[in-house]
Design a protein that fits this description.
Elements (H helix, E strand, L loop, with lengths): L1 E2 L5 E2 L4 E6 L7 H5 L3 E7 L8 H10 L9 E6 L5 H20 L13 H21 L7
Antiparallel strand pairs: 1-2, 3-4, 4-5
């Protein structure tokens, strides 16, 4: 079981991992050893996640989900298979955590009351009058 948060744990049977040859720097190691990890999480068949979290995952990562409903994460950042494997699992957990957090409902802003607006405008006009009286008088010929 892979713990995601207090409520969610993903079973190992819901994840498949495939190891393929990497690309980029690494010398002969890149040509010989399969260090890239392709982790697939069966989103449609998962019993660990409720429908709400699954829907948010679909919206968060639409390009990573194939036609069979499997979420794919490719990890090839590191040169070793184990570090890439750990990286792929950590990224999966982070993605599911983001999908699992419920957003707080937005509080609707209410406008000020009529009485408050009158007080604010009265004070504003009074302040403007005080500032106008401070200026030097203009002498018109």
């Amino acid at each position: 079981m892979i713990p995601v948060n207090e409520e969610i744990q993903i079973g190992e049977n819901e994840i498949t991992e495939r190891f393929v040859l990497s690309r980029g720097p690494g010398g002969q190691n890149v040509n010989k050893n399969a260090t890239t990890v392709q982790l697939r999480f069966d989103l449609e068949g998962s019993t660990s996640l409720d429908d709400e979290v699954k829907e948010r995952l679909r919206r968060l990562a639409p390009g990573r989900i194939d036609k069979q409903g499997r979420l794919m994460i490719r990890a090839r950042r590191f040169r070793t298979l184990e570090r890439n494997r750990r990286d792929a699992r950590e990224r999966l957990v982070a993605l599911i955590r983001r999908a699992a957090e419920r957003r707080k409902p937005r509080k609707r802003r209410r406008g000020e009351s009529r009485k408050a607006r009158e007080r604010r405008l009265t004070e504003k006009h009074r302040h403007a009058e005080i500032k106008k009286l401070r200026s030097t008088p203009r002498l018109d010929d």
